[in-house]
Amino acid sequence: MSLSNLQYDELQRQYDARQLRNQRVLQERRAKIFAKYPRLKELEALTASASVHHARHLLDGDDSALEQLRLQLACYRKERAAILVSAGVDEHYFEPPYLCPDCKDTGFVDGRRCHCFEQAAIDLVYTQSKIRSILQEENFSHFCLDYYSDTKKNSATGLTYRETARNAVIESLAFIRQFDKEFHNLFLYGDTGTGKTFLSNCIAKELLDTGHSVIYFTAFQLFDILEKNKFQKDSKAEASMQHMFDCDLLIVDDLGTELANTFTVSQLFLCLNERILRKKATIISTNLGIDQLSTIYSERIFSRIVSSYTMIKLFGDDIRLQKKNLSSGTAQ
Hints:
The chain has helices at 5-36, 38-59, 65-87, 115-126, 129-135, 161-177, 196-209, 219-232, 235-246, 262-277, 290-296, 299-308, 319-331, and strands at residues 108-109, 112-113, 186-190, 214-218, 249-255, 281-286, 310-314. It is of the alpha/beta class and 332 residues long. It has a 5-stranded parallel beta sheet, sandwiched between helices. Strand 5 (249-255), helix 10 (262-277) and strand 6 (281-286) form a beta-alpha-beta unit. Helix 10 packs parallel to helix 12 (299-308).
């Protein structure tokens, strides 16, 4: 992912701050536990001095020094472990509280950018911190099937709205499990307020938590970037286009709310087709029906979506209104 020098410096400062925070937390932990269990500090000093002592003997030709050191250190470790157990902590207590254990909050693994750095770059470029805060609420642990009717049915399948929503969740979880093994896309459609955006956010959180790069756009934001790249030769828009094609998952929310014209149709095909060619997953959510999709956009886009996406339709009464009514009832 290409970044300007200013953006790169900003990310580097964030990682430097992480490492300083880790050092401070570790120092505070050590000071706290050493004050309560001074023997731990003594054992640390004894370990260091024993290593130096036996190393000298080994250099002087004492072949037994290495075995003696091993036995002595094992004794110290055993005593240390017993103290930690009594203190209610484990060995990890003396490790920095890394946000990313893979790169140890350096941003790099074996000289390559860590997955956390790539997502941090996305967060910086697209100001996705707001999305992250949303994901704290909109995730699978908060997905509630009670908002879907257990009596109303989808006439096409005979399943209740709740059963249909449950199947959508199962399909979404399968999408996540197979994400690194098989290439899939999802097309979520249905009336306003049936949980399409919520479900795509659930998927986004799971993938973000496992180190994948995710970009979320409303359809309006997506076409704004495409337009700037096409007509204004905007450098930021050009970089955004590259990120759009390269990220592990692209989410396009509320397709159909933009002003559809020849330009948006051609650019949408470009975007979707490029990601299919690169085998990069995309989730599209829309209030449009399948028949509207083929009418508003081209047959070429319709064919691409139908052939390359798993179609998931959600049914139900507007969940936002249900929540609002429940809240009003509670207040009364």
